[in-house]
Amino acid sequence: RTKGKGYVTYKGKKIESKVCPQNVTCKCSMKCHSKIDQEVVTDIWNYFYSLETKNCQDTYLKSLIEATAVGRRIKSAKNDVPVTVDNELEDEDENERSETVYKRKHTFVYYIKNKGCLVPVCKNVFLKVHGVTGERIRRICSLLLQNKSPRDLRGKNRSGNSVPGTVCNLIHQHVSSYDVKVTHYGGKPKKYLDARLTVKKMYEMFLDKHPGLTNVVKYNFYYTYFKENFDYRFGRSQVENWETNY
């Protein structure tokens, strides 16, 4: 993913490979597209995706962003809502003064490297040239204000409801240990477990065999794993029973 190549998510969704943009344009007043040509865009793209890790990429992007104080405020700005705060002054009269505090305290300037020089561009061009999302840049800007270095945390936040793969293997082995009867009535093979079994009973027998997993494997997880990984039914079909008895 760091190299911009396509991949498949854990949900099976296919993500296409990233492609270097052609004829980058924008509608801002700075006319950023006139400051760079296709050769510069290609060089930036190739360098960015040659970096080995996401941390290196984020550090590189961070070096091209500058945080400055807001110089002029526009009343129509959606993300810059003023809030009135009452401050008490410790003077003789103990007067109160109302102070207006704005939600947005910084603005960011984005640069790209053009033949060794930093050229300011709008955010849209900055995103297109590097092939990154606005959310990724928002996070990097937040780190810039906190004076922190980027850290790749993907895959390191384990869900509290997750079940280790070794436990899933134990469930799989347990279900596979039961005898299965295969019928071919109707042309399509069907697999049946003993009619006296249910998923609930199998779950209880699993916990009897592995009592230490009582708080790890809940019935809902066991049931879901059974349904998603085994195409088993319980008991034999009535048609087959009729044929056997006949």
UniProtKB/TrEMBL annotation:
Organism: Cuerna arida
Protein name: Uncharacterized protein
